[in-house]
Amino acid sequence: MSEVLASTENQILTLTLNRPAKQNAITRDMYQALANAINEAQNDFGIRAVLVTSSSENFTAGNDLYDFLNVAPHEESSPVMNFLHAIHNLAKPLLAAVSGNAVGIGTTMLFHCDVVVASPTTKFSMPFVNLGLVPEAGSSLLFPRLVGHQRASKVFLAGEPFGAEDALDFGLIAEISYKPIDSAKAIAEKIASQPPNAVIQTKALLKSELHEKVSAVMRAEGELFQMALQSDEAREAFMNFLAKKGK
Fold it and tell me: What is the CATH number of domain 4-181?
């Protein structure tokens, strides 16, 4: 069974992370599948919006750490960067429905979404420093813009997770729902029913101030991420994490 499921209904492309045994930890193949589907949706007039969700309780445990240890993931042509470029450059509305754990990329990808709906029990975390790494996906720019330097520093530097109520307060999500997929689909259908060119142009205007800045920050983050990943500090942190996980 595919680890990324794709289905289209009511002009909405739904991409579902489907690796429940690993809490939907994302592999290189999954990143590329997501990137390919999003890029195809960009050029498909029949698709009016894209929704990302999961087939199980947890949205995603983040990156598959074994992939990270084997191959540098943030080279410009890597599947990770292909995915990040796809969500950053998608002209059509991008939505997400999340629940359970939303770790690392499971949180940072949401900064590129136009609407996010989360379950009340969702736990967001960006534990990059914990692993000897730096933020990704433009989050070092976008998160402080949302919440201010102090709160962003507390989350990033201390590696502190936060819940759905804080995410709503931060402006990271638009809504809390006990049925996040149903709620997100209802919003996506409303958007899909609007004049499509007006929707695309409005999204472009909303993102215009920061779009190029985010692109530049993503490149810088990617370079620093690769350097950090090759450090002894990161290797030790990864090994400690995997040792704890294996107990």
Answer: 3.90.226.10
> What digits encode the pLDDT tens for the residues 23-59?
999 999 999 999 999 999 999 999 999 999 999 999 9
Cα–Cα dist 201/83, whole Å: 22
Is pTM, for the whole model, over 0.85?
yes
Q: Tens digits of per-residue pLDDT, 160-198?
A: 999 999 999 999 999 999 999 999 999 999 999 999 999
C-alpha dihedral sign at 23, 136, 123, 158: positive
Helix 211-229 / helix 139-147 crossing angle, nearest 10 deg: 120
Pairing status of strand 49-54 against strand 175-176: unpaired
Length of the chain: 247
Q: Which residues contact 114 (CB under 8 A, 6 or more apart)?
A: 93, 94, 95, 203, 206
CA distance 122 to 103: 10
Sequence ranges of the domains in the chain:
4-181
Nearest-10 crossing angle of helices 211-229, 232-246 = 80
d(CA 69, CA 242): 11
Distance CA 174, CA 77 (A): 32
Strands of the sheet containing 101-103, edge to edge, are: 101-103, 123-125, 162-163
Separation CA 130–CA 228 (nearest Å): 12
